[in-house]
Specification:
Number of domains: 1
Order of helices and strands: EHEHEEHEHEEH
CATH architecture: 3-Layer(aba) Sandwich
Strand order of the largest sheet: 4-3-2-1-5-6-7
Number of helices: 5
Radius of gyration: 15 Å
Length: 173
């Protein structure tokens, strides 16, 4: 079943050294568990997480802001050129069964918000904290390590009630 699990990894284009290292380890952990890593396909946390996944033979998908697939970082297996600019953040957030945020700035915050609005689990390492009471019970779940974040993501994905890994508007899986 894990080959159908996709986890989106989000974070800053210019992460701290610690966040870059953490993103690389998150990518490794996702790939070790047999899931597909989805990211924005460019630099920073996106590059580091994809590199980590590729280090252990994982599959990576990059949802790119521009029209050209060749702008993807070298660790992306499947580049998807959207031509949407920052609006592609919706696709990154919606495409994963869960989202792991490592650090990040405003673009990361937008992806967190889109994921929470879609009721996707969001696990955060050194990232944004949202004011309780304004998120309708959809909070960022904190993690201290890559392994903890990926374990939490898998637990939440696999234990979701009535989860089918397909869009219900298209019928039964």
């Amino acid at each position: 079943m894990t080959n159908k699990i996709c986890i989106s990894v989000i974070g800053a284009n210019n992460p701290t050294e610690d966040d870059a290292k953490m993103a690389r380890e998150v990518g490794r952990e996702i790939a070790k568990r047999g899931a597909t890593l989805i990211c924005g396909g460019l630099n920073g946390v996106m590059l580091e997480s994809a590199k980590g996944a590729k280090d252990v033979g994982g599959i990576t998908v990059g949802i790119l802001p521009g029209d050209a697939p060749d702008i993807a970082n070298p660790f992306i297996d499947i580049p998807i050129a959207t031509g949407l600019g920052h609006a592609r953040n919706v696709i990154v957030a919606y495409s994963g069964n869960a989202v792991i945020a490592v650090g990040g700035k405003l673009g990361t915050l937008s992806e967190i918000v889109f994921a929470l609005l879609k009721e996707k689990p969001v696990i955060g390492i050194n990232t944004w904290h949202l004011e309780k009471g304004r998120t309708y019970g959809n909070d960022i779940i904190s993690a201290k390590s890559a392994k903890e974040a990926v374990n939490k993501a898998f637990d939440l994905i696999l234990n979701r009630k009535n989860e089918t890994f397909s869009d219900p508007s298209f019928g039964e899986a």
